[in-house]
Specification:
Layout: E1 6-10, E2 13-24, H1 27-36, E3 43-50, E4 68-75, H2 86-102, E5 109-111, E6 115-118, E7 121-132, E8 138-146, H3 171-176
Length: 194
């Protein structure tokens, strides 16, 4: 079953759009659905909850209400030979958004390739996935999950959340604080150069 939300211009990013949902299976999955349906990219999909969130290696990602779940769809990001730089660029952009929204300076440390940690505990995960579409275009999806108000119990990794650390940061505030990773000296552009 396809989940469809209202698509509108993304605030602060005139070339991008955003689609917001109450609950979805996975924001990454929805981005790929949009790409397979011919979407041109430059699309953020955000949800209050995910029912099938996942991390690297297919691990489950706890997705309760109040935390941030968002994915960015890029089609044919250029230059193609620098796509491998996307994970650290996304991680730096997200760490800056955490600092901006929490009023901190370098609160998080980056764990290559996809985690943001605070004192060794996982605050956030970033999942980058790519797929070559039937028409030859390349869809790249960058998924962001941030523990704003809660975190999973101890499992494979120690985890934390911003509220437990003493910061009152909503998912909306954190999302609005992001600096688009495709701008400001980023090695990756958001669309194919014509």
């Amino acid at each position: 079953m396809s989940e469809k939300g209202l698509e509108r211009p993304a605030p602060g990013a005139p070339d991008f759009r955003i689609e917001e949902h109450e609950s979805v299976s996975s924001t990454n999955n929805l981005c790929f659905e949009r790409a397979r349906s011919g979407h041109a990219g430059g699309l953020w999909i955000r949800a209050q909850m995910q029912t099938e969130g996942r991390g690297r290696r297919g691990r489950d990602w706890q997705s309760p209400r109040g935390n941030l779940f968002a994915s960015l769809l890029l089609i044919d990001p250029q230059p193609a030979d620098r796509i491998g730089e996307l994970p650290p660029v996304a991680a730096v952009a997200l760490s800056e958004a955490v600092d901006k929204s929490a009023g901190t300076l370098q609160l998080v440390s980056l764990k290559w390739p996809n985690d943001l940690l605070v004192d060794g505990a996982k605050l956030s995960g970033i999942l980058l996935e790519a797929e070559t579409l039937g028409d030859g275009r390349q869809a790249v999806v960058i998924g962001f999950g941030v523990n704003c108000v809660s975190h999973p119990p101890l499992s494979l990794y120690e985890a934390t959340d911003l509220r437990s650390l003493g910061f009152q940061v909503t998912a909306e505030r954190l999302f609005d604080a992001r600096r688009p990773p495709w701008r400001n000296n980023s090695p990756i552009g958001g669309s194919r150069a014509d």
